[in-house]
Amino acid sequence: MCAITVVEIVETCIFARLLMQAIASASQKIHVVLGNVSCDLDSTVCALVYGYFQHSRHGSSAELYVPVLNIRRADYALRTDVTHVLGRCGLGDSSLLTFRSDIDLHLLQSSGRLKLTLVDWHMLPEDDSVLDDALVEVIDHRPRARPDKKG
Description:
This protein is of the alpha/beta class. It contains 4 helices and 5 strands; from the N terminus they run αβαβαβαββ. A 5-stranded parallel beta sheet has the order 3-2-1-4-5. α1 (6-22) crosses α2. The termini are far apart. The model has no long low-confidence stretch (mean pLDDT 83).
């Protein structure tokens, strides 16, 4: 059984944020662990914990695992259950977290640098369908689904 502490998750979040800033123009692969668009508590915790887990198992200088909360940074305060629980766990400072508005997934995908894991959801929305080729894993109680291709 693998036991992790909140401190280890916080350190991983800090590490991921610093590296994201440092590699903005580099060629490093970014493996985003993305929670669902509701950014509810279970989705947030899944993204953070699975991102930490993957980073601790597979993270390297060639590939960075980044847990991403699937909302704009400006909307974080509206998720009061999430802010409350993360605050109690030492993640109250939102600068430790990476939000969807902080990272351009479409640009990473077009440059061939994106790998994507979905947690707590199983299908990308239509406006993100271009990211489907980067999708390598889905962790949800429903099987992976693909949006219908039009035309």
